[in-house]
Each structure stands twice: as structure tokens, then as C-alpha cells.
Amino acid sequence: MLVLKPLSNLCNPSTLRARIPSLQTAAFRHVRTYTSSQDPSHPHLYYHQLRTSPPLMGLSFLPEAPKKGAESRTIIGFLPVGENVGLEDFRENAKFIELMQSEIKAGLATGAGATVETEASARGSDGFMHIADGRNLPPPGRIPEPHDIIGSVYVQSGKILPETYEAQPMYRICTQDGVCVLPYGLDEHILKALQEVADKE
What is the CA angle 195-63-111, rounded to 5? Predict the structure, then answer.
């Protein structure tokens, strides 16, 4: 399922078709003349037309189209190019999810998760703490929706234990609330890791 929350032109299948002119203005219409375009309402989201048959658009956090095209681990997911594209047409890239989750754990180990560490320090007891996607943060004291929980990590005496990080299998990179928005600090770590992967591909 696809939605770009800040875009909010992809909210659900019924409203998408009503808003397709706006959606095409933001992204799809430009695919015919540009190979890449930036989502103006997401901090790190780009669309890249991929050389596939049938044609696909790859969503990425990197501004340059991947050299490996649809095979790249830097592609978040895929969307067909067409006039009547709906949420049900989005397909996530399992290789990206695997890379992202691995790098989140690595980022926590190197102290890249500033907001996660701040949240951990404010906890009053030991236990697992959820790392939530920023696209749909829950009210204070509430648990995020399962598809918005990126993963969980154990907190002891206000400190996270990075080696305990576990990915949430029900997490979805894209939902009706938008494409993944990583916590501050981890987002920059992931961007750097993705660029390193892209440079090697």
C-alpha cells in the first residue's frame, strides 16, 4: 500500500483517483520528461523512473537514480507508471527493508539515534522500547500501531542496549499515513549508508 503522507495525494484507493491530477503534478506527470523528481513534501523522498518493462517508478531516499535500477538495495519500493495508480499497486523492496533494519541496529550502536536515546533516558523503568515511524507518531503514553513500529530495543537504567534491537515484522515501509520517516539521527545514518551502497553498486 502506498501513501506519501506529506503528499497526502495517496491517502486511500477511493480518494486517490479523485486527486490524481494533483498527484501527477507532484510526481507522475514529470516521469515522461524527467528521469528523477523530488517529493516536495517529504524530507528525503525521490522518484526515479526505472528502465523496466513494464515501466516502474522507484521510490528512494537518494536524489540520484540507482545504477543497478530495480535491482538496487537503495530502492524503497516500486510503483507502476500510469494514470490510475492506487495504494494497492505499491510494492516494497525486501532488500531495502533488510538493509534499513541492519543499519538501524548499527546506527544505535554508534550513537546515531539521538532522539531514541533521549526517549530512553526519560523512561522510568527498564524494558523494551518501541522505535516508531515519524509519519504517524502516537499521543504521549500510547503504543504506535503495529505497522508503524520499526523495531524495539531494550532500555536499562535509561540507556539503550543496541545489541537487543529487534525489527518489527509487521512494520510497513509505506501505509495510508505515508512513506517512512525515520527518527532524527537515524535518518542521517541511513542516508549515509544508502549512499555508500549506491557508490559500490
Answer: 40
User: What residue has cell string 553498486?
Assistant: 201
Q: What are the structural domain ranges in the chain?
A: 94-173
Residue 152 half-sphere exposure toward CB, CA atoms < 13 A: 13
How far apart (Å, rounded) are the C-alpha atoms in residues 146 and 168? 8
pTM across the whole model: 0.79
Name the DSSP letter for residue 6.
T
56-60: strand order across its sheet: 36-38, 46-50, 56-60, 75-80, 91-92
Using CB atoms within 10 A of its CB, is residue 48 exposed (0-12), middle (13-18) or buried (19+)?
buried
Question: How far is 81 from 84, CA to CA, in rounded Å?
Answer: 9
57-81 pLDDT, tens digit per residue, is: 999 999 999 999 999 999 999 998 8
